[in-house]
Automatic annotation (TrEMBL):
Top-rank taxon, per record: Eukaryota
GO molecular function, one term: metal ion binding
Domain tRNA nucleotidyltransferase/poly(A) polymerase RNA and SrmB- binding: 207-256
One Pfam assignment: PolyA_pol_RNAbd
Cofactor: Mg(2+)
Transmembrane domains' residue ranges: none
GO biological process, one term: tRNA 3'-terminal CCA addition
GO cellular component, one term: mitochondrion
Keywords: Magnesium, Metal-binding, Nucleotide-binding, Nucleotidyltransferase, RNA-binding, Transferase, tRNA processing
Protein name: CCA tRNA nucleotidyltransferase 1, mitochondrial
InterPro entries to which the protein is assigned, alphabetical: Bact_CCA-adding_enz_type3_sf (IPR050264), NT_sf (IPR043519), PolA_pol_head_dom (IPR002646), PolyA_RNA-bd (IPR032828)
Organism: Clytia hemisphaerica
Length: 426
């Protein structure tokens, strides 16, 4: 009897510690508990299943950031969810049924809903799971304390591991033992750096124990797919505190285990310079990565290693080849406009825009984006009429005329170019 009373007392106090009621009239809470979400949750509650908002959307709401995606968790199993959706004519997709995840399409929006689960066995990023109805056990399997919070439709915040306190302090802590969490999924090392950039105000907020574990387990990153590595690294590069985090990744041997090249101090300085002057712009992560390589071959090799998109690889090589291009005081954009006209490709304007962002020329990048590209007035048919026969000299002559047109600041007309052609033939 006494044991039951003590157990009940401990349980009640644990609930009080982990839960607080938010004001649902606060704009950020109201935005999260939007009508679609409330309607979905009512369907579950009518069928006697618990359901809460979970993870990133709750974290972002607490720091007054607008969240991109709203994810939910429930005590209903996947089969029970399917039965509910069919009964209520709700469209759904079996996006991750083996892990208990379905995506609901509701009033034009998508919401992922996942059954509470525990990891029975882990295999890197894969895991064998069992479903549960214990919210704390589900929270224990999550990576970071700030991602382990949940919120019900009444505005009750459930925080089993002091995630809200860590948010307020700008602390990034793993749930439970850092060694165990990382061994379950080595990608969590990179997620540590990404979330540190998201929530920490300074470079002084690391816990030494966590950094020691990261350094010890960094070789495990070699088992992670390069696509996943690039997905995390690309977010770290453009995030807050990126120069500090990049150097820390090198110091802890994380960089060498994800394929980043050896770096000299001058590379870090260049990275920080580009990162600082491009803040607030839409600079692409590969532009920042390009600061860590010397030439096009190295840029291409790194991009191929990480399997970035063809455009990203081309952009990285383009930046490396053209980062020293400069305009003049009289014509600050002429050199960049010349590149656009010479290359004449669908993506060249975006590449030149990114080059300007790399150089910190934010306003100029906006101008170049809307520049009305002049059209070279001479084409192949014109050359044939002038008596030039197809062959090796045909392209050379066309390029020569085009260079004259470019040097004239795009002012030479077709007639003037014909006169230049006659002069070239003499």
């Amino acid at each position: 009897m006494l044991k039951n009373i003590i157990r009940r007392y401990v349980t009640v106090n644990n609930i009080v510690k982990m839960q607080r009621r938010l004001d649902v009239q606060q704009p950020e809470v109201r935005d999260l508990l939007q009508q679609n979400v409330l309607d979905i949750c009512k369907v579950f509650e009518r069928n006697n299943y618990e359901i809460r908002l979970i993870g990133g959307c709750v974290r972002d709401m607490l720091v007054k950031k607008q969240c991109k995606d709203i994810d939910l968790s429930t005590t209903a199993t996947p089969d029970q969810m399917i039965a509910i959706f069919k009964k209520n004519s709700i469209r759904y997709i079996e996006t991750g049924l083996q892990h208990g995840t379905l995506t609901v399409h509701f009033n034009g929006s998508d919401y992922e809903i996942t059954t509470l689960r525990i990891d029975v066995e882990t295999y890197g990023r894969a895991a064998k799971v069992e479903f549960t109805n214990d919210w704390r056990l589900d929270a224990e399997r999550r990576d970071l304390t700030v991602n382990a919070m949940s919120l019900d439709v009444e505005g009750n915040l459930y925080d089993y591991f002091d995630g809200e306190k860590d948010l307020q302090l700008g602390k990034v802590r793993f749930v439970g033992n850092p060694n165990s969490r990382i061994r379950e999924d080595y990608l969590r090392i990179l997620r540590y750096f990404r979330f540190y950039g998201k929530i920490s105000p300074s470079a002084e907020n690391h816990e030494n124990e966590t950094l020691t574990v990261i350094e010890e387990l960094a070789p495990g990153l070699r088992h992670i797919s390069v696509e996943r590595v690039w997905m995390e690294v690309s977010k770290i590069m453009v995030g807050n505190l990126a120069p500090h985090l990049l150097q820390l990744m090198y110091r802890l041997n994380v960089a060498s285990n994800i394929g980043l090249p050896d770096c000299q101090e001058s590379y870090f300085q260049e990275f920080e310079k580009v990162w600082s002057r491009s803040r607030g712009s839409a600079i692409q992560p590969v532009c920042l990565i390009s600061t860590l390589v010397d030439n096009e071959n190295q840029a291409s090799e790194l991009c191929l290693k990480w399997k970035v998109s063809n455009f990203e690889r081309s952009l990285c090589c383009f930046i490396v080849s053209n980062r020293n291009v400069k305009g003049t005081d009289e014509q600050p954009l002429k050199a960049y406009q010349d590149i656009i006209v010479r290359k004449n490709g669908n993506q060249i304007v975006e590449m030149v825009k990114q080059l300007l962002l790399y150089q910190g020329k934010i306003e100029e990048s906006r101008v170049i984006e809307t520049w009305n590209i002049p059209k070279f007035p001479v084409n192949g048919a014109d050359l044939k009429k002038m008596g030039v026969k197809p062959g090796p000299d045909f392209g050379k002559l066309m390029n020569s005329l085009k260079e004259l047109w470019i040097e004239s600041d795009f002012t030479l007309t077709k007639e003037l170019l014909k006169e230049e052609f006659k002069r070239l033939q003499k």
